[in-house]
Structures are given as structure tokens and as C-alpha cells.
Design a protein that fits this description.
The complex is a heterodimer. Chain A has two domains: about 45 residues, no CATH class; about 190 residues, Sulfite Oxidase, Chain A, domain 2, CATH 3.90.420. Chain A is about 30% helix and about 25% strand. Chain A has seven helices and eleven strands. The mean pLDDT of chain A is about 95. Chain B has a single domain, classed as Fumarate Reductase Cytochrome B subunit, CATH 1.20.950.20. By secondary structure, chain B is mostly helical. The N terminus and C terminus of chain B are likely disordered. Chain B is about 55% helix and about 5% strand. Classes of the chains: A alpha+beta, B mainly alpha.
Chain lengths: ~250, ~270
């Protein structure tokens, strides 16, 4: 093999790799291949659900393992007129609405939420970007709140509508009933032994500990039990899912 | 080119007929090409994901205000080059779609290949590292042979040489499994399903750091692997990985076999 053919081969190889890379992008835009590419989410969800006990707990930590600084991400202040009024009133007149496919729609104040049996947990928050922070969260189990509202058997998903607006529409997220009734899924009003700050989602932040950060919706204003995610937002179950193709199943 | 042929026992002046040996079993060839594509996609999409937060930490937690042992932000321009990432433009969601689908191909592919290679005895025959092979004198001789671009033992040309064998063993039994398990340890769902995963690596951010280090090891392996394929005769090597049959490079005049490396084993 002469040097020239070797050089041609190396150049050709590099060129081929480049073509392959741009080929990947072209492929990802083909509807058929895109469906295959996006099927990974369902496969991973199926495998994880098969391997995982329904109530398997996310790791919990001790106070000395907590992050010294728990950074904020996404929206750190909804800054709407309504929200700012609630902040000024220290959320005294704020109410959490629970409706949709329930027998007894609820309107809960922070005092009502505090009256439910409480769960406190020190857990790790994993951002989809790669960083992690460990903090303490406290609030009632979502499952108990949903039981109080009497979720109907026709419900399949729980949708959280938030105070922060993204392009004029509220941020929203959704989980299925397995995660909704998981013991670590709580409506946190306290973080690190203080009321949840505005930056971290005051007055209520959903904690759904077996998922990445973006599922843990801040500024929760309303909770609805629904039979289908179609017709809500763009139908993919959440703001990031609708707009930038994040996976709805964020357990990985 | 279909049957192994013996060197013609003709006068020395005549060129020796090419020797063809069956070198790569079907399972090895299939896995090799699936992996070639998969590793390529995993590296490109992995760099895309890394670009979302190009800082690495040790321990359970780690974010902007914590101490990063490696901060790659100064190299963002390189790491965000379109020729390096999948997709070419920064898109965390699409990088994750590629990465998490092909992670399944990598994981289950390795599992099937390992089972097949135990059954067809590829591991036991070709990849077993024998104690005398990793003695310093033998390794030194093997290194010198590499530097002479002499990659094949004339007595058993189909056998892997020691450094080659060690590289494959490290890639198959250390690096790729490490990639898979540190990858799983980063999944909050898997941490609930298998809590021992996170214990094993000492925290999610440690797992993420080890994931990066093992990936760097694989990149190094790929570079060395491709370089040696080019040096060893790329057409013959690639052809053998497609058909399984490998034509021996024209042998230098036989020397007295003083540096016998391995006892020849029955070829298939």
C-alpha cells in the first residue's frame, strides 16, 4: 500500500465520517426514521417500568449530603400581575384548584395543603442538562390529595398547569397515575426547611423524584385528572415535550 | 479465495501463493459493523449532550456553584463544531433521542455478542490473555514488533498479537460495560430500580465523570484501531471483517523462528 493511497484512504475516511454525520441529521428529519428515533422513549419506559417496582423509591440522602447551593433553572419568576399579587400577599389568597375527572373538585389554600399528612425527603434533582443538586422537600403526597378529590377510574394522566407563561401559554407538565400515586411524589411547599422560594417554584412545586428536573413543575396553579393528553397544549404532555421534543418519559 | 491454501512447496524464487485464513466469525463481524455505527452515533450525540453542561464533578451532586474537576467550557468552540456532534447544531433533545435509542443497541448488542462469543469460543480461543503474554519481556518484544509494523506472528498469522488482544479485552470487558453501567446510573428511574448502581460509582456525578473518561478511552481505542487498520493493509483488513476471510500480507522471507509467540491452534 503506497502512501498516496493511504492518504486518500484517511481523507476519504474523514470525509465519509462527515457525510455520515450530516446524513444522521437528514435521516432524523425523515418522518419514518424520526418515528424510529423517537421510539427509544417508549422502549426505555417499558424496560424501566418492567425492571422497577411500582413503588421503588428514588435514593434519599442525609442532611450532610445536601448541596450547599441549589441553583435555579428555567423560569425563576413568572412575573405576571396575578402572580406578583400572590407574592405580595404571601400567597394568603392563593388557591390550588384540583379538577378534571374527579368526583369532588378541591380548592386548597396553603393551610389546607399543610393539613394533609406531610412527607419530607432529601432527594437529588437531576437536570436534563447533566447537573445534579440535592435538597430537602416537604409537602403532602399527591396521591392523598387525589384520593381526597376522588379521581375517577377513567383518568389516566394528571396535568399540572403553572403560573409561568411561555410564549403566552402557561407552562404545563403531566405524569401518569403510577407516578402520581408514588409515595415520593409530593406537592412541595417547603424546601430546605423554608417555604419554597419564588426562584424554586413558590408556592407549590411538584416533586416527581424518578424523573428529570423538567417534570418537576414549579408554580403549580391547577391540577387536572384527564383521560388523554390530546388537546392539551400541543398534545405531547408538557411544554418542553411540545416545543423542543423532550421525552415525556423523563426517567432516563 | 475460498479455501485455506498451503504455501506452494516450489523453488524459493517463485512468489508464494496467497494464504487465506478464516479469521472472523459471523457474530464478530455482525457485532463489529453494528458497533461501528453505534459507537459513532454515541460519541456524536454524547458530545451534544455534554455541551449542555460541559463541567464534570465527583460525588452525588454537582452544579454550577460546586467544584468541577474538569471544566470544558474553554473548549466549547471545538465541542460545538458541527462535524463533531449529532445533530450538527446544538439540540439537547435530539442528541438525547439518538443517544438513548442507540444505547439500547450498544447494551443489548454487547450482551448478544458476549453470549455468542462464549458459544463459538471466540473469547476463549482468541481473546484469552495468557500469563506469559503479559510478562514485561514479551510485551516489550510485541511493542518493538508494532514499531516495525510487524503485526503478525508468521507461525500463527490469524492470532491477535498481545497488545492487540489487550486493547480488545479492555474495550469489550472494561470500557463498553463501564459506559453502559455509568449511563444507567445517570438515569433517575434506574437509580430507583437498582439503587446499587449509584453506590457502585459513588454518586451520579461520579458516574457522569466516569462515563466521560471511559468514552475518552473508547475514542482513543477507535483512533488507534483505525490507524493500525490503515498500517496493516486496510483493504485486506476491511474485507476480512466483511467476509471473515483474510488474505495474509506477503510474508517476508522466513527467518529462523526464534521469537515464537504462540502455539498455532486449529484454524476453522
Amino acid at each position: 500500500m503506497t502512501l498516496i493511497t493511504r492518504r486518500t484512504l484517511v481523507t476519504g475516511g474523514a470525509l465519509g465520517a462527515g457525510l455520515l454525520l450530516s446524513g444522521c441529521d437528514k435521516l432524523a428529519q425523515q418522518p419514518g426514521f424520526r418515528r424510529i428515533l423517537f421510539s427509544g422513549e417508549k422502549i426505555n419506559m417499558g424496560l424501566q417500568r418492567a425492571l422497577m417496582d411500582r413503588n421503588a423509591l428514588a435514593p434519599e440522602f442525609t442532611p450532610d449530603q445536601m448541596s450547599p447551593v441549589f441553583r435555579t433553572n428555567g423560569n425563576s419568576n413568572p412575573n405576571t400581575a396575578d402572580y406578583n399579587r400572590h407574592v405580595a400577599e404571601n400567597f394568603a389568597n392563593w388557591r390550588l384548584d384540583i379538577g378534571g375527572l374527579v368526583d369532588r373538585p378541591l380548592r386548597l389554600s396553603l393551610t389546607d395543603i399543610g393539613a394533609f399528612p406531610q412527607r419530607a425527603q432529601i432527594t437529588r434533582h437531576d437536570c436534563v442538562e447533566g447537573w445534579s443538586a440535592i435538597g430537602k422537600w416537604q409537602g403532602p403526597m399527591l396521591g392523598n390529595v387525589l384520593k381526597a378529590a376522588g379521581v375517577r377510574t377513567s383518568a389516566r394522566y394528571i396535568v399540572f398547569t403553572c403560573a409561568d407563561l411561555w410564549g403566552g401559554a402557561p407552562y404545563y407538565e403531566s405524569i401518569d397515575l403510577i407516578d402520581a400515586f408514588h409515595p415520593q411524589t409530593i406537592l412541595a411547599w417547603a424546601m430546605n426547611d423554608k417555604r419554597v422560594s419564588v426562584g424554586h417554584g413558590a408556592p407549590i412545586r411538584l416533586r416527581v423524584e424518578r424523573h428529570l428536573g423538567y417534570k418537576n413543575a414549579k408554580y403549580v396553579m391547577r391540577i387536572d385528572a384527564v383521560a388523554s393528553l390530546a388537546g392539551i397544549g400541543l398534545g405531547k404532555g408538557g411544554y418542553w415535550e411540545d416545543h423542543v421534543n423532550y421525552d415525556w418519559y423523563a426517567g432516563i | 479465495m475460498d479455501e485455506p491454501t498451503a504455501p506452494a512447496d516450489s523453488p524459493v524464487a517463485r512468489p508464494i501463493a496467497p494464504i487465506v485464513v478464516y479469521r472472523h466469525r459471523l457474530a464478530t463481524r455482525i457485532w463489529h459493523w453494528i458497533n461501528a455505527i453505534t459507537i459513532f452515533i454515541m460519541i456524536g450525540s454524547g458530545i451534544g449532550i455534554l455541551n449542555a453542561h460541559p463541567r464534570l464533578y465527583w460525588g452525588q451532586y454537582g452544579a454550577n456553584f460546586d467544584h468541577a474537576w474538569l471544566d470544558l467550557r474553554p473548549y466549547s468552540d471545538i465541542l460545538r463544531s458541527g462535524w463533531l456532534t449529532i445533530p450538527a447544531g446544538y439540540n439537547l433533545a435530539i442528541s438525547r433521542r439518538w443517544h438513548l435509542l442507540f444505547a439500547l443497541v450498544l447494551g443489548f448488542g454487547l450482551l448478544v455478542f458476549m453470549i455468542a462469543s462464549l458459544i463459538n469460543r471466540h473469547f476463549q480461543r482468541d481473546l484469552r490473555v495468557r500469563a506469559r503474554e503479559i510478562g514485561p519481556r514479551h510485551l516489550w518484544a510485541d511493542l518493538l514488533a508494532h514499531l516495525r509494523f510487524d503485526f503478525h506472528n508468521p507461525e500463527d498469522p490469524a492470532a491477535y498479537n498481545t497488545l492487540q488482544k489487550l486493547a480488545y479485552v479492555v474495550a469489550i470487558f472494561v470500557l463498553i460495560p463501564l459506559m453502559i453501567f455509568t449511563g444507567l446510573a445517570m438515569s433517575p428511574g434506574m437509580d430507583a430500580a437498582w439503587p446499587w448502581l449509584i453506590e457502585l460509582f459513588g454518586g451520579r456525578q461520579s458516574a457522569r465523570s466516569i462515563h466521560f473518561i471511559a468514552a475518552s478511552g473508547i475514542v482513543l481505542f477507535v483512533i488507534v484501531h483505525l490507524t493500525l487498520v490503515v498500517l496493516a493493509g486496510p483493504i485486506e483488513e476491511v474485507w476480512s471483517m466483511i467476509t471473515g476471510r483474510w488474505t495474509l500480507p506477503a510474508a517476508p522471507p522466513p527467518e529462523p523462528a526464534a521469537t515464537s509467540r504462540a502455539e498455532p491452534e486449529a484454524a476453522e
